[in-house]
Amino acid sequence: MDLTRIRRTAAAFLIAGAVPFPTVDAQQTVTPPAPATAATSLIPASAADTVEVLLVARATDTVRVEKDRLLGERRDAETRWAGLRDQSMRLKATIAELRDAIEAASAKEKLAKKDKRDADRIAAAVDKRQLQRALELVEARFELRLAQDEEARIHRDFIDASIRADDAELSIAERRDQVVPNDPAQRTAFQELTSRWLQALRTRSARANDLEDRRFKVIDAQIALLKRQRN
Q1: How far is residue 116 from each of residues 123, 125, 176, 216, 224, measured CA to CA in Å?
Q2: Which residues contact 181 (CB under 8 A, 6 or more apart)?
Q3: Rounded distance, CA 193 to CA 149, Å?
Q4: DSSP per residue, 45-64
Q5: Cα separations in angstroms, 135 against 5, 82, 107, 123, 131
Q6: What pLDDT, on the 0 to 100 scale, is given for residue 22?
């Protein structure tokens, strides 16, 4: 055997001894690889699926006192709305009378001009201007009454929505201590009451927005009347 083959054989034995092959005992249990961690374990505890208390009802006595106050306000609002409707009807009748009077004054002015009665023509022209001025003011007042009329109606609707919200809150407050947490039927009933209360609060908020919009229009009508009064 030449020197080169001897060196190669020695190197092969050295490598085999340095990297031994693993041996497996026949009775040894091979541990399988750990399964992948479930994705839910990555969710923090603070984000767990829990039932959140959306609304907390006030004491029943507090809600009843507020409801009684609202019922009194509703009676006042209904009376105010009726009064504004009556004023609007009377102003509308006055507008019709003024327009008739203006037509009559205009006819007198034309007739006096035709007959060359200057004094009568001038007097009729003065009457017509005064009537036109009165008509402008009454029309502005009529527009204001219409705006106030609509505002009063929506105010009444807002109070009605507030009363319904208080009724829904009372239902929650009265049954709050009777609900057994582990009773699915009672829990479902309580959630239905909560849904009813939320819907009532939503309606009340919508009526509040409508009321604010109508009050804005009332102010515009007041500004228009003030401008006509100053002219």
Answers
A1: 13, 14, 89, 52, 40
A2: 187
A3: 35
A4: GGGS-----------HHHHH
A5: 130, 24, 17, 18, 6
A6: 43
pLDDT for 15 beyond 60: no
Tokens of 25: 């005992």
Q: Is pLDDT of 53 > 80?
A: no
Please state the length of the chain.
231
Q: How far is 71 from 67, CA to CA, in rounded Å?
A: 6
Give the pLDDT confidence score for residue 6 in this predicted structure: 44
| Three-state secondary structure readout of 122-164 | HHHHHHHHHHHHHHHHHHHHHHHHHHHHHHHHHHHHHHHHHHH
Q: Which helix (H) or strand (E) holds 86?
A: helix 60-114
Tell me the residue type at 30.
V
For residues 194 and 172, the answer to whether their CB atoms sit within 8 Å is yes
Tokens 């204001």 correspond to 144
Cβ-based neighbour number of residue 97 at 10 Å: 12
60-114 vs 118-175: helix axis angle to the nearest 10? 170
pLDDT in tens, 84-125: 999 999 999 999 999 999 999 999 999 999 999 999 999 999
User: What CA–CA distances, in Å, run from 210 to 69, 82, 87, 197, 215?
Assistant: 22, 20, 23, 20, 9
Written as six digits, the tokens of 78 are 């209904």
Q: Mean of the pLDDT values across residues 138-146?
A: 97
Look-up: residue for tokens 């006055």? Answer: 94
Classified as helix, coil or strand, 182 is coil
CB of 168 closer than 8 Å to CB of 197: yes
Q: What is the DSSP letter of 108?
A: H
